[in-house]
Amino acid sequence: MATKRLARQLGLIRRKSIASANGNLGRSKSKQLFDYLIVIDFESTCWNDGKRHHSQEIIEFPAVLLNTSTGQIESEFHAYVQPQEQPILSEFCMELTGIKQAQVDEGVPLKICLSQFCKWIHKIQQQKKIIFAAGVSEPSTSEVNLCAFVTWSDWDLGVCLEYECKRKQLLKPVFLNSWIDLRSTYKLFYRRKPKGLSGALQEVGIEFSGREHSGLDDSRNTALLAWKMIRDGCLMKITRSLNKVSSVLPLYSVISNFINRNIYPLVPLVKKMAIISLCFVFTQMWLSLACLQGKNYNDCMLNTASQTVTTEK
Fold it and tell me: What pTM does this model have?
């Protein structure tokens, strides 16, 4: 016991845990819902000049495939993306991300990048028998391996990619509609608010490897943090899903059908009633003005009636 206490005081036991995390050694304590995690961390156009700019565009699209049983990164995807709305990077953006103007100039538009990414996804699906399933509550017992996406916050998939695809009218892959927000998962599991990705790594005894705000390095380090959390007993679950919006579609369809069948046929009748009502209102206004000029209201009505009879004759 004295030796163990001394080792803990010297930090040897903690260092052993850190080495395991960095070296991908050991195995997870509990069976995870997902056999694989795909970690994504976009880099986008940005400015710090205080001016109002257009919405951000993705300029680096990285993804790493993490095995939740071994902690190893088994595959990677990486591409530089050519911004279309603001093609010239700011000095601040290049300094922050380390991405050069020539790299995005030689990159591909987001539409092509998404196509390349889908090909990579299809390849690892075939190789590792991966499927994506958002509503999972128990580990898979079949021969297929369940997989989920992981991001550090909801910004990457919930804001950046979502709105850029809408602005540019691009078809976003459906499997990117659900993900695990590792930042919120970290906060709930360790019961403390992380000070950024680098701070979260430091708090669990892991040193950030590579360059901060490099999309690929951020993805690798996020995967490393996820593996550490898994080894500490954290169960990775989907925290955000845009697919919930689709649950209202059946109700929308019912309402739409009801309107088409029952309301639209009444539109001509409604229009007629509206015209008659407007005519009546204007007539009453005219009569009221006439009476204000000294005429008797009943005389006005009689004159109007007599004019009508004369017109009919």
Answer: 0.70
43 given a catalytic annotation: yes
Q: Domain 36-241 is classified in which CATH homologous superfamily?
A: Ribonuclease H-like superfamily/Ribonuclease H (3.30.420.10)
- Helices vs strands, H then E, count in the chain: 13, 8
Q: Does residue 122 have an active-site annotation?
A: no
Among candidate residues 53, 85, 213, 312, the one labeled active-site is 213
Residue type, 253: S
pLDDT at 261: 52
What are the residue boundaries of the structural domains of the chain, listed by start? Answer: 36-241
Q: List the one residue out of 215, 176, 212 whose CA is nearest residue 197.
A: 212
A 10 A CB-CB count for 91 gives 10
The answer to whether the beta carbons of residues 241 and 178 sit under 8 Å apart is yes
Task: Tell me the pLDDT tens digit for each residue of 111-136.
Answer: 999 999 999 999 999 999 999 987 77
Catalytic residue among 43, 57, 60, 164: 43
